[in-house]
Structure formats: structure tokens, C-alpha cells
Amino acid sequence: MSQTTEGPLAGSSMDTVEAVDLPADHLGEVHDRVTAGGAEKYHKANAAKGKLFARERVQRLVDEGSFVEDGLYANALAEGLPADGVITGTATIDGRPVCLMANDSTVKAGSWGARTVEKIIRIIETAYATGVPMVYLVDSAGARITDQVELFPGRRGAGKIFHNQVRASGSIPQVCALFGPSAAGGAYIPAFCDVVVMVEGNASMYLGSDRMVEMVTGEKTTLEEMGGAAVHCTTSGVGHFLAKTEDEALETVRGYLSYLPSNWQGEPPVAEPVGPGKGNLRKLVPESERQAFDMRRYIKALLDDGSFFEIHALWARELTVGFGRLDGRVVGVVANNSMFKGGVLFVDSADKASRFIQLCDAFNVPLLFLSDVPGFMVGTAVEKQGIIRHGAKMITAVSEATVPKMCVVVRKAYGAGLYAMAGPGFEPDATIALPTAKIAVMGAEAAVNAVYANKIAAIEDEAERAAFVQAKRDEYEQDIDILRLASELVIDTITQPEDLRAELIRRYRAAAGKERHFSRRRHGVTPV
User: Fold this and answer.
1) How far apart are CA 469 and CA 444, in angstroms?
2) Does this model's pTM top 0.90?
3) Beta bridge partners of 331
């Protein structure tokens, strides 16, 4: 029985204070119940799908013993709502502080209640206030409709989560690993993150369930067809990485963060310098601009061995983006890949580039543009999709990026493709051409046809026609000769392929202290 003392406590003596007996076992029982998550049947159902318990995900992601949990006892007095279905707290990953949240799908399918929302809001605010990355481990069926008044409309309702994410965007890295559904409004948590890792077969994002879609539109579909991991990582572009297992997803999160500073005021982590990857930079580029080659092999041969970390590898593949290192220092690579659609820029690839360029600029990652671009796609289909608007978005991102920028014309840079790949007019710290480089409004074949189409058609003799066309093409090639462009100071230097890596390392070092101001304004009006 608990006992109390009679009368006031005397400041000079504790003799009259009797011990208070607390129910020591009760708190331990509550702790064990809360940390165990939901009912055993839900744990078994998840395990059958290859899904880990949320607390196990946290344990595998962070440094051993580093996790400090907040809000563990949220809704502890309610039946069946341990931690109110979400785990939040601070930890370290590779020794660097982070904040994180993890939905517990064994508790009401990871759905949100009022305290769930409050916990998520608080941890994002903590990440923003302390300037550390925010990691979201998402596996949630969305809001609990029965609790909508408490969690949905108010000043500290679900909308505040997204408001805080937007405020934190570009200030701290935000990365999401998606292990199950991210439904309805909850789908916007991944959407506001810098990157999204999705586990194949289990992860999904959708605003309306398959049943809702059928009720509203009459369309019969499945969650996998509509919002599965494969769809979002290959078609919609909402997903950036497609992981086969949860451990692979967690490893991807760790790998991604290793290239970024903790916040916008820091510098990317420097690694021990290593030599270049395998590959002959001269032989990797075909002489004929009509012959495709895989730019990813070129990137890997140019950068520090094993350092290339490709992002959005399965979407808009005509453009390759990702992090890598040169002499141990992080760079962000934007490169045209002629293996896919000839390296032509489309609506999706322009969006892909814009987002990645903004990401690098936000977190002080120098940019490397490797140009082999015929230009933007033309035709009825892409015009209806808004290719001009999306192209303008990419050119806006290139213009606004104030980090050190290097433009390397590997093979060709035609039309507005030159602009989109940080050509001379967009204030790169250097425009470097390889001997194989060509810079022009368009290629020789297209240019001769555009200017002389009527005259070519009027030449009846086939041999004479061919000779005329070849002569005009040769004339055009001489006009755009790369040495001439160097003599006119259009480009800064012509570099041999085997010297490119050393040239870039020296130039990035020289540009490291550049002034970062761009314009006198609050922000531009992006052509979204």
C-alpha cells in the first residue's frame, strides 16, 4: 500500500518521510506491451509477406544502441494502440545524427490517429530545428476515418505534416523507404521526400484504393497495377529505387545519405580518394554519332571506382543521374544516354533532371553534365504533353543552380539540348569539349536537309545529288569545327579523354569557393 506523511515536510529533516511504494512491475508490463506492437496474427501475416516488424527495421537501419525513442507511451491506456501505430525518435547512421519515423503496420494497419499525427509532426520539427536528415519508414493504410475530426482538419492535423515537409525541403535531406502501402493523403509523405525507395511486391502508393477507383470511375484495377512499386519506379517516376528486399531498401537509404551533408549549410562527406573505375574513356565513345553507347559505363570509368550511385535508374532512362566521387569528393552527374531513345530529352527526362539538379544545388553538391544530346523531342505527342514547359523547367533548374558546374561535351550538344546541359550561356565554371564533340543548332544531315531540301529534290541525277549533299555536309561540319569554337572562346578547352578526369578534379578544386548568389528576389516562378 502507498503511504503518505502527515504535515509539511521539514527542510532540515527527512526522518518523517516514509517511502512510497510504486507498482514497479506495472510500468515494465506496459513497456513490453507497447514495444511488442500489435497482435501476433498481424506479425505472422507480415512475416509471410517478407515484411519486418517496424522496430526491427529501425534496429537494422541505425547504429547499434543509438536509437532514442519519443512518444513511446502515446495512447498507452487505449486498447490495441501501442505507440499509436508509429515509432519516432533520434539515432545515428554511420555515426551521423538523424531523425526518423516508422509506421507499425501490426497496429491498425499502420493507420493514423490524432497522436500518430502529432508524433510525426513533432519529429519532423525536431529534424528541421536540429538540422539533421529525416528518414521516413512508411507502411500505412492512411488515416483512421473514425478519428477524422481529431486528426484531419486542425492546425496540428495531418496537413501540418506536409507543411513541415515542404518547409524542411532543401534544408535537410528527407528520404523515404516504403515497405507497404502509403494510402490516400498519406501518399504525400513520400511525394514530398527527396527520394523514395520502394520494396518490390509490397510497397504501393495511391490516392484512392482499387475499390474507390471502381466506385468513382468504373475502372477495375488492382493496387499493384495502379500504384505498385514497379509502376512508380518505371512509369510515374514517383519512386526512385526499386528494392527486392527490405534489407536492400535500408541499405539504399544508408548509401544515399552517405553522399549528402546533414543540412543545407554543410558540405558533402569526403571519402578516401581511390583511382578511376574500369574502362577506356577514348574507346567507350564511338566515332559515329549515330552509334549508341551506354553512358553509365563512361561515368563509372570516369569517377572514383565503385562510387557511382545511380538515382531513378528505371525511369526516363534516356537521361542518367546520380551521385559519384572524384578524388573522394562528391559530384552529381547529369548525363545523356544514347542507349535509350537516342539520348533525346523527353518530358519525363526533363523532370528527372530538374529535380536532381535542384537536389544537388540545395545540398552543395557540385554538378557534372556529360552531354551527348540530339536535343528535345519534337512531334504532336510531346507538344500535347507540354515538352516546351518541361524543357523550360529543366533550363530553369540549370540556370538557378549556383554550385560549381562543369559542362563536358562528350559527343554532341544540339539545339536547346546544349542549354539544358549547362552550355556556355548558363554560366558553367567550364565548358570542356572532347575531340569527338560537336556543338550546333542541329546535326549536319538535318541542317542540310532543312536549308537545301528544294534544291536537293530538283537534282535528278542520283550521283550528282549525293555529291551535292555530301559537299554541303562537309561545309557544315567545317563551320562547327570544335577547334573553331575554342578559338572563338565558345568553349574553354579541348581535353583528351584520358586527361578528362584530372582536368575535372583540378577545376572543381578551383571552383570550390565560388560565390553562390543568383538573383535579387524571393524565388522565381518555375514553369511547372
Assistant:
1) 10
2) yes
3) 324
